[in-house]
Structure formats: C-alpha cells, structure tokens
Amino acid sequence: MNKFGDFQTLCTQVPSYTWCNLFYRQLLTTDESVLQGLSQNTTTAPVGVNPVCGIPKVNDGSLGNIANILACGLSCFVVLSLIHFTGRRKAAVGRVELRIFFCLYLLTLPFQLITTGSFLTQGSSALVVLTAIHAGLVATLFWTLLANAIVATQVVEDGTLSSIIPFSIFSAAFFVATTYISLDVGFSWTNVIGKSNPPQSLNSIPLFVLTSIWPGIAALLYFGIMLYIVLGILNEIRPVWYYVIAAILFVLSQLDYFLLSKIICKASSMKVDGSFIATVLETASVVALYFAWRGITEEDWDNDVY
Fold this sequence. Notes:
- By secondary structure, the chain is mainly α.
- It has one domain: Rhopdopsin 7-helix transmembrane proteins.
- Helices cover 64% and strands 0% of the residues.
- The chain crosses the membrane at residues 66-86, 98-120, 127-152, 164-187, 207-234, 240-260, 272-293.
C-alpha cells in the first residue's frame, strides 16, 4: 500500500516523470536489485523506475522523447514573445513580476527537454543535478505565480523594492530548499531527507510536497485571488473567461500527463508519450494568463484605472 510521499506508482505508471531520475540514482547506490525490466540496463533505461512503458535513451537509432523536445523548443519562442509584449505595457500593474514568472517558465523548458528527453544516462550525476535544478525552478515558478496574484491585490506597490525584495527572497528560498532536497534524494546524503525506506517505495515527503502538492495549492490560490479581483473589485467579465480557459488548459495538461501518457507510449511503441501534449497545453495556459492580465491592465499612463 502506498504511503504519502511515495513515488513508486508514479515512476512505474507515468512515462517521463521527471523526478524519478533522482530515485533511479538513489537505487543504484542503495539497492540496485530493485531495478528491473526497462530500468535494468542503465545505457538504455528510460525516465522512470521500472516503468511499464518508457522512451529509451538516445542510442542505436532512438530519437528519445522527440515530440516533447519539439514542443519545448516551440514553447520557448512563444514565451519569449510573451516576455517582449509584457515589457511593452509600461503602465500595467505587475509587469515586472509577471515577466519574472514568464522568464522562470522559459527556464523550465530547456531543463524539461534535457531531463525527460532521454539524452543523459540514467543514474548519472549530471542528470541528477539537472533534475534537481529543474525541481527547484518548478517550485519557484509556482511561488512567482502566487506572488503575482498577491501583487495584483496592490497590498504593496508593484515593481518597487517593497514588492521585489520579498518576491525575490521567497523565490530564492523555494529554489534553494527544493534543489537541496532533490540533490539529497538523488545522492542520498542524509537518512532523514534523502534515503527512501524501504528503497522500493521511492518515498520522499518533502520532495512530494514541493513538486506535487505545492504547485496545485499555488495554482488554486492564484486563480481564487484573481477571480476575486476581477469580479469583486474590477467588476469585469471578459478577463474571467481567459482565467477559466487557463485553468482548464492547466488541468487538461495534468490529466494528459498522468492518465494518457502510458496509453500514448504503448500505442506508439515507445516512440512518444503524452508529455508533449502536456507541454503544449501548459504553454497555452500561460498564454491565456497573459491575455487575462492584459485585459485588466492599461498599456500606457493615460488611463491607468487598475
């Protein structure tokens, strides 16, 4: 029976589940006998721990997770455009903070490309370090998402030191804490945080909270606060639809990732999985957030009503 914080089911049933890279390395050093099936050969092992279906490492003609590689690449250009257009809205509330959010999302894309693309050998130190940084970026990304909602309430003036300093301090804290915990899991530095007991359960409560629970909580709080601002304070309707669309796209991306990836992987004979669809939907959700923000802010200083 799975306990809270167990990654065993996720690493087995969800192809290309990024954080499994950390546990693969841990098992190599603590109990290599747990690695079976597709995970037994480190030179071809896909992302995951004993996955029922996975995309083999780039080797002997394998292209790796090529569909998600392309999706990440195209998403980078889309997000760069959002960063540019956001910067042009000089009078918009939360412009600086939203650009930071977009920049962080942009950073997660190449890390996702590498950590799920089956480029690096499973269990290698390089893959563990890159996966740990990726985890830190994801946890920080969702803090910046929530922080944007807090800034939108105007409890502090956006773009000023009173906003940027706490914004940056909490961002650094999330990044450092999550990256350290991820490295501890991968390299088994400590028994308290790092090592899973028993090894086959792939258990890490701190990692599970920061990479699985925290993003969901932050997203829910963000949408709740923004809907309150748009409906309760601004009395606007049109931007609400963008926020609803963004929320739906985000939920669909998670459902695809966790429920359809294995089906797509098997149907394609381990050529692609659902991660590329999830990436496209997540990027579309970020685009919808931009249009929602654009709808409640002013472009110049002449009619700054928000």
